[in-house]
Specification:
The chain is α+β, with helices and mostly antiparallel strands. 24% of the residues lie in helices and 26% in strands.
Amino acid sequence: MLIRLWMILLFGFVLSGQAAPSYPFLITDVTADGDLKFEDGRVVKLADIQMPLLRPDGGRERSWPLAKEAREELRKVAAGKRVGLFPAGERQQDRHGRLLAHLMTEQGLWLQEALLRAGYARFQPTGGNAALQDQLMAAEQTARNEKRGLWRSPYYRVKNLTTLNDSRGRYEIIQARIWKAAEAGSVLYLNFGEDWRQDFTIRIDKRNREAFQSVVMNMDALAGRLVEIRGWVRYYNGLMIDMYHPGQIRYIEENDAEAIRRETDGNKD
């Protein structure tokens, strides 16, 4: 897995005429937000993953389950390491000015993949490199299958339509069947029940539609498809997730018995 990543990155550098990757950045600190501080003062947010939110003790908002354990895992794999920085895609900074990047240590450890495989992060697509994201999804799936880290906690387990009620304001992974796809003006909606005013819905805005052409091509064929979606849940005529990146949705094959069991039994395991 790491060799494949290295070849992808190295090939990109060769094509661009740049020198092979080096490891010039020293990680000096890991923040409570899960950001990494470099010796030169720059702050990096690990692209394409989401770690549990860690809140100050005694504050109004509570930390997510296993947030402290996740930070300790990040410190273990990152603190004091020299790393190479590889942009996640066209978007190189977030709105807070943090660099968005993939990091690899001198020892060949890809930090994002390591955290996902250990179960202390979830895949949250932000960049544009589909090949890297497929590997990250595979690492997350390994942790899910073996119930490592976060996946031991019911808080993070994959939801379905019967276990979604308390998810407002949370980042969730959901497996459910599309009832119908519909367009309203410039917006595409994937409805998961007959009553769009109350049932769970996915919203894809016009400015993001082009990015979804590869996953949402024939709207008539979407009805009845079992999908896994991920994103922040909000309330607007029922619970809703806004989709910005095609990595937020994947189709589940009908022979995936485990996924179908979760869909139908309320994820009781």
